[in-house]
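Mods, move this if it's the wrong board.
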Amino acid sequence: MNKRLFSLIDDLETSITTLAILAAKYKVSERTIRKDIIEVNELIKKYQTENIGMIHLDRGGKVVVPLKYSSDVLKNAFTGDYYSYRLSPQERADIAASIIINTNGFITLSVIADYLCVSRVTIINDLDIIRERLQEKQLTLISQPNKGLHVDGCEKNKREFLVKIGRVRPVFVRNNKINQTAGTESLESMLRQIVNGEEHTHQLFFSDRSFEKTIDCITVIVNRVYHGENIEINDFTHNEYYQLAKDILHYTSQYYHIDIAENEVIFLANFFQMQRFIRQKKRTIDSVKIQLLTRQFIEKISNELDINLNSDFEFLENLSNHLESTLSKPENGNEEITLLQEVYNRHANIVETVKNNIDIFNNYAGRYLTKIEMGYVIIHVCAAIERHCNSEKYFRVIVSCHAGIGTSKLLLEKLKEHFNFYVVAIVSAHDMKKINETQADFVISTIPLKDCLLPFVVVSPIITDEDYVRIGNQINKINISELKTSTFDGKQLSIQGIMEVIEPVLYETVPHEVSTIMKKIRKAIKYYIRQDELSEKESFMPELHHLLPYTHIVIDAECNSWQEAIQISSNILLKRNYITQEYINSMIKNISDFGPYIIVAPGLALPHSKPDFGSKKLGMQFTRLKNPISFGDEILEPVEFICTLSPVDSNTHLKAFFNLVNMLKTPSFKRAMHNANTSQEVADIILEYEYGLW
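Not the wrong board. Structure tokens:
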């Protein structure tokens, strides 16, 4: 029984919920919540004396709970105290052995007893069991008077022991050295993002059980390496999972600043041989093409509205994902929806701009988008404009949810994705009568509020497009001039603002080193900010410099036609088994059939095809042509730079693609790429400018 499971038992009784909401609340994957529900069902079988039925999921992901389900019955079977769960001697021995292994040097019986909230005598009585458990992995328990306990044996056997009990250890081992790397929760959250991203990259998908075991194994690797415990492996054979293991540990090492040796990769690859993989059907829609079209659409409406929305990554991501879903389904009807009609009436100029440029999607779909479909595109445009216009303005809001504080926080995270809110408080609905009119601009609630003195907007806990419209309408009613944006603690800090304050100080103290120090500070701040951003995301997105090391960069390639240029700009990916020749042929055919839509910025082409046509794993190759060449686009040509993309899904490459296009809009970046003399120099330029993106 762990802390999350205790909380989940209550949630299942007190609120109607879905798999997605629970996963977001506890910051774990949906597969983890599925596993927890299975565990709750086992508790129901064991402790619920009356046959009440099992918890199950309907087709929409809603969690269906039996009417007579009782959280009190399940929780009363235990003490109710997270840390006083009664372990069996076998469980206690496993955890004690884990503590001893993870201690540098010796550890005393008293310290182990304190960790497990038992007496020293209990640990003494458990010593024989601990020895037996360790001996199963050829490990020896060493006991020395006045020193304590120590485990002797090879690192490989220690790792295998720790991985075996991985699901138990993080729950009960507190304040031990295994938790000092980056915090157990943040480490596990990041690893889940990385592993899930590499599943899609390599098209190798773990079963739920194997996924959890993999997280355990990598957690053990990170913590052991962090504390200087490296593995010894004599067998250097590369199996079929070697590249998957190498890529996972490559990104892990980057984000946790540890050096992971080749032996660790082999250990993980061998571990993968014992795991179960499942088949997963690939999506056939051309996600990258939709993203390219979305990018062009954003540029066109930005020019027409005279508002620069090109640097809004959230806009590109949200709108392209929405269009991918819309265009992969049958045509939506034209029935009237009141909220959408309000959008059409309120934002006539935006509606006209979208209509003027919507053909870019009509042509791709081979049909006209319906009024409803176009209405939702307009909503995304309005949300982007709202973010742009209010980037320096703050709306003070109070968030209230009938399902409790936990769900309110989930609601808050969804709102932050689209609005620049300063949250004054998260308040239960029955306490709203205590809030006065001066405390906030308005309230966002999941139920109507009877005693609220402030304006309020009623939304659903999961936040729909219609809810965003309601909130936007409320914002439009607020007199922006009355907002006091610099007098409260929620003032937003920008990286650029911080740098502008730091730079004069450096000129006063170390004028000859300002440039070097500023670069280091900028990089450090950017890295710090991105860690927070990454921890909130569901999936891991590599950035451009991750996908374009110097080994994937070619300068001054020569060719005589655009077809030859495509072949040359894909050769590295082909040789390194990222793609097949079929994939290259498919890219050439797409350009022949649909024209030069791959030219995404002046002088830059981004060739790609669907993953189904031979893309084996996520990758990029950047090629600078010695003599620019024509693809048939009179406005954006000639093409000097070609960045070939091998995607594996609709999202993993999107951040790298977004950064590349934005960087190429910077004249100094383009000049630097044009003047670079080596592949390594190009890679360094990409890294420098990518960290400089605001």
